[in-house]
Amino acid sequence: MQKLYIKGGKSLKGTVRISGAKNAALAIISASLLAQETVCLDNIPDITDVNVLLDIVANLGVEVVRKGPDSVEITTPDRISTITPYREVKKLRASNLLLGPLLARFCNAEIALPGGCNIGSRPMDLHIKGFEALGAALSLEHGFIKGCCSRLTGSKIYLDFPSVGATENIMMAAVLSKGQTVLENVAKEPEIVDLANFLNSLGAKIRGAGTDVIKIDGVDQLGGGRYSVIPDRIEAGTFMVAAAATHGNVTIENIISTHVEPLIAKLREANVEVLEEDEIIRVIAREELRPIDIKTLPYPGFPTDMQSQVMAMLTVVKGTSVIVENVFENRLQVADEFKRMGAKIKVEGRTAVIQGVQRLQGAQVKASDLRAGAALIVAGLIADGDTEICNTFYIDRGYEKIEQKLISIGADISRI
Ligand code: EPZ
Question: pLDDT tens for residues 189-248?
Fold first, then answer.
């Protein structure tokens, strides 16, 4: 069981380069199964979630060839297995994104139900509603979602909630459907736009990604091509918050600043200086930070994936800050770990009220999910003394070379 050790109190200074976006890469790797020819993907991060998904599709019979540190070639023959076993799916919820491509191209899919996780129950009702609207028959049997269909046919679908995964899964299923699909009340995250751009580069006909309505004109097949995944806005945001929390001066390279606008606005409100130019963002926090209120919402609202990291920063900001988590029903639990470090946080339902304290104290803490783990790193960086974080496997799911990147900007962190 690996652990991260952090000696707190150092201000972060220097430049860090962001990797490709985990949540874009997972959707785009799944979508690659729709292509009749070879797809080459660049800017793919070397993180556990991506490597597990590549193993899962390889076990289906898809040809996966690594081409260099962040490139991979994917070739999907006309016949592959369409059954993903539970032992693999339990390692990666996002394998549910294989449903859309497998139904669209192979008219069959059996995906073990990914089950809940620490941040919420993670239902799939909206995914299923979309696939059934396109003509698939789905059933839940012995912990598997089983789907089969003849060729899917376009339909008009309204999502009760702008679910990222459901938008992606139904969009992937619709690209090979007969006729037009109109998807309403969809997610507008940058990863949705990246997936649509990728699919269109293979010959799909998708319009409106990034808005509330996506229109997809079905085509008979998709060709191959080469595509580079967008940078990871949540990794970037994590470093931005760490820079602010440690009163540092950090330049973030390889980030599309419009993708982190919601966070930039909140950091400026907290009295942090944020400079934007092209694909570079500079975070400078000389002054005392101010308390702020956060409400997480679907994009372009404040991202739920940045909520725990900002909570870490706010634990030592004088005054009262309030965080409301509107997206997942159980994503405030990292507060318990912060309280073990001396934070003053009161959690009631989906609301956390944070009273700033002078300093956190280093402690032995454990990550309960990916972003809680990242938040504990931020807390360790600002705490007095040493912090030991266990369950680092959660962090490695979504952050490439996290300690190397932090050491390069002055953090005293090591992995044992
Ligand atoms: C994606 O998860 C991301 N994961 C999550 O990132 C991210 O937190 C989330 O979107 C929200 O932005 C990937 O892209 C792999 P949702 P997803 O469907 O698709 C409810 C990280 O740390 N819902 O938008 O699962 C659901 O219960 C991860 O990188 C339904 O009710 O998120 C939740 O309350 C964590 N029915 C809300 O929607 C459904 O059928 C948001 O879920 C689907 C979702």
Answer: 999 999 999 999 999 999 999 999 999 999 999 999 999 999 999 999 999 999 999 999
Q: Is the pTM of this model over 0.90?
A: yes
How far apart (Å, rounded) are the C-alpha atoms in residues 375 and 253?
Answer: 21
Cis peptide leading into residue 101 (ω within 30°): no
Taking CB atoms and a 6 Å cutoff, what residues make up the pocket around ligand 1?
22-23, 26, 94, 120, 122-127, 161, 163-166, 187, 304-305, 327-328, 370-371, 398
Q: Quick check: is 117 catalytic?
A: yes
- Which helix H or strand E contains 27, and what residues bound it? helix 22-31
As a whole number of angstroms, the distance between CA 106 and CA 101 comes to: 8
Strand partners, 14: 250
Containing 347, the helix (H) or strand (E) segment is: strand 344-348
Question: What is the rounded CA–CA span in Å between residue 385 and residue 21?
Answer: 33
The DSSP H or E segment spanning 201 is helix 190-201
Q: How far is CA 320 from CA 20, 294, 311, 346, 361, in A?
A: 35, 12, 12, 11, 19
Q: Are the CB atoms for 92 and 56 separated by under 8 Å?
A: yes
What's the whole-number mean pLDDT along residues 167-193?
Answer: 98
Judged on CB neighbours under 10 Å (0-12, 13-18, 19+), 216 is: buried
* Range name among 85-99, 148-162, 282-296 with the lowest pLDDT average: 85-99
DSSP state of 10: P
CA distances from 400 to 82, 137, 397, 405 (A): 30, 39, 8, 9
Strands of the sheet containing 156-158, edge to edge, are: 156-158, 180-184, 213-217, 205-207
Q: At 393, give phi and psi (nearest 5°).
A: -60, -30
Whether the CB-CB separation of 92 and 84 falls below 8 Å is answered with no
d(CA 84, CA 112): 6
Confidence bin at 268 (pLDDT 50/70/90): very high
Q: Which residues contact 51 (CB under 8 A, 6 or more apart)?
A: none
pLDDT of residue 116: 62
Q: Which of 229, 309, 240 is nearest to 22 (CA)?
A: 229
Q: Which residue from 50, 52, 164, 188 has its CB within 8 A of the most atoms of ligand 1, so it is best to mutate?
A: 164
